[in-house]
């Protein structure tokens, strides 16, 4: 009787193990940690698209930051500063920030997590705030001291946009070093 129970128990174990193995091999069934077919390709495509957009956003943000810094340095000496150069730098900063915002908007659909959406919002707000700072600066271009102070604040505002970009680019596996 004991031998029969042991044999039946062993047979049940073999049947259960066989059923489990067949179930694990069924199409659509995943092992823990296993990716869905095509998921890896989708993640790679997301990374490629993010990398292209971040390359432009980073370039334009750096261009705006350097232009703000140059405007600040130029306006620190009244003998070096003139309105024509001030206008050129403000125009360049505006164009760069608009281009950065345009390419950042291409990243929006790729932001899938709550953190990525928050980082997108922070970066976008930093760019928008920097653009808003240009209007008063445009009106102060005859006063080098005012331009100097405004350009310094603008450079800091632009700098604030780099950290959320860094975090978002890292999260999206972008190959671009931000900042």
Description:
The structure is a single chain. By secondary structure, the protein is mainly alpha-helical. Helices cover 77% and strands 0% of the residues. The protein contains six helices and no strands. It has helices at residues 2-24, 39-75, 83-107, 114-139, 144-160, 162-171.
Q: What is this entry, summarized?
A:
This protein has 179 residues and is an all-alpha fold.
Q: Please, what is the oligomeric state?
A: single chain
Spans of 5+ residues with little confidence (pLDDT < 50)?
A: 3-17, 23-34
What's the average pLDDT? 85
In the CATH scheme, the class would be Mainly Alpha
Query: What structural category do the secondary elements indicate?
Result: mainly alpha
| 3D shape | elongated
The overall number of domains is 1
Through-space gap between termini: 77 Å
Largest sheet entry: none
Determine the strand fraction and express it as a percent band: under 5%
Helix content: over 70%
CA radius of gyration is: 28 Å
Secondary-structure element series:
HHHHHH
CATH architecture: Up-down Bundle
DSSP strand count: 0
